């Protein structure tokens, strides 16, 4: 409720641009990533022999040559490493098949790069030599197309009648490229068997508690026998939200040999076998009445799955469907979704996870509608955006948009970009190819539950353990601010623990833009529980009845006698044998929806097709902002990934399923000089607090990937329109080459 939101802000840590407490270590090379950990005595290095074909029958895996090499200690194939069970898969669709998870391939190969054997050696080089000496007999099969693995449907209202009666019908089609999440730190694992059974595994993961559950299932172990530790993690972006076969094989080999095993993926291995994102194909049509108001949306979404299902395989497709029709009032929808297996890397969540696809389709349709009706880009959106008084709003896909003022966001971003349209017109008159692109978006964030445990340390400091995790977002800094306000202490008095399943309560982890809102909600509830336990102790200390006590800076005070105070250190000293501790599991009632508006100015060099984002204006509403500097960092990082998605990045395969983009020589990651020449981030005049958490915070981590690609694509399309080129059906990314070709053929692809 708003009273709680107000209270949370009163104390003054929430809302401040506190510097990241993580940075001193990370910026001076003192971070501890999995590969930095000292290797325990007897530690072996792992390397993988991988399938050379995308599809085939695995006749034999011959390990003898590998085993004969100096330094090689052991080697195992799929026949040795039989999993006891499967990792969990999020079963959003009842017809979703089994996950097909194998640490090492057996009998069949379903994708190039699939691990066939693990080689363990005294050095990393010896392990690599061993992996190269593994002889696999693989009988290639044609990588065949497969039947739909699952299907979903969203229908509401009478779309058919609306299309029959429409004054205008516009269409758009988008083929999203597959994207490599490409975290700075490739996957890594260090598995250390425990005396008496079980193991500790240091893992580069965003979901340590899920990894623990998955490893327990695969290894056939009691979960209590496994400890997963995520130390510093160098980015994740969705690709570290599910266990990969290599990590399972490393854990299995460590147990089998009774020796520690370490593995660090190379960039090429990351490109070849880590989960990828996007790749969806969407087609949509929008029916509008004579006044330019949308009456129905039809969409078909094809979602690629790769060769196996990671935990969140169905999420991008589901999100793309359920986020339609975005911030717009569209009474009827008919949306069909189908997922297909193929012989490529597995598909999963990647920063945005289906939300960017929904925004791209709606924003392309809005552009087309603006043209067809003659209303233009701005007026067509004004006429169709849900007004703030319509919220909370149940969308025709069954979601509840909790809060936000979409027309105000549009007005604000247009105000920020005042004069750009005129400047564009003037440059066009001089023959320049420039375009403006608008995009609005909604972003579901923060659902489900998260946990927290607060402990009052003997010195009065607060230890805050969270089930959420961190991969560079500055979570420790932000969580300390939240706890500091809740307990009326300085944020420096709060130490945040995360990532280690032995010292943190069970949690979901860092994904779905949930950690601040939901993880923060859990911390606030745990803080309230700690206060309740501390109150009688403080009352004893102050020789007053608990009812006479009031919260005061640093602890409690007697009402009417502000000098009579009991601080957290005194409370801790009063309970030396039994430190106060409180745990909470916060279940979010419903989902929060962030929202925003982006305006992009793109210039195209006609001779080369090079598109430059000259200016990007962006207003993002995330409700309560815990730390504006961290929020800005998230926006800027996501924004650059959004530019990469629109203009640069594509995982490419040939017909035979061989990866063509196995390194950064071939995969165009956005670099500093691809960033917009000028970026202006604006705040909404009246942020809309989340309706689902006491903190009121919505997510910000994925926002840049959601609105920015659509705005940039709309800007490119706007620039090309001046030359009569239309992009009603487009394939991403809009590379220099594809723009040049479009300009020189006078039409879309
Ligand atoms: S890739 Mo996000 O965790 O929906």
Automatic annotation (TrEMBL):
For this chain, one GO molecular function annotation is:
iron ion binding
Q: Where is the Aldehyde oxidase/xanthine dehydrogenase a/b hammerhead domain?
A: 28-142
Q: Which UniProt keywords apply?
A: Molybdenum, Oxidoreductase
Is this entry keyworded Oxidoreductase? yes
Q: Which InterPro entries match?
A: Ald_Oxase/Xan_DH_a/b, Ald_Oxase/Xan_DH_a/b_sf, Ald_Oxase/xanthine_DH-like, AldOxase/xan_DH_MoCoBD1, AldOxase/xan_DH_MoCoBD2, AldOxase/xan_DH_Mopterin-bd_sf
- UniProt-recorded name of the protein: Xanthine dehydrogenase family protein molybdopterin-binding subunit
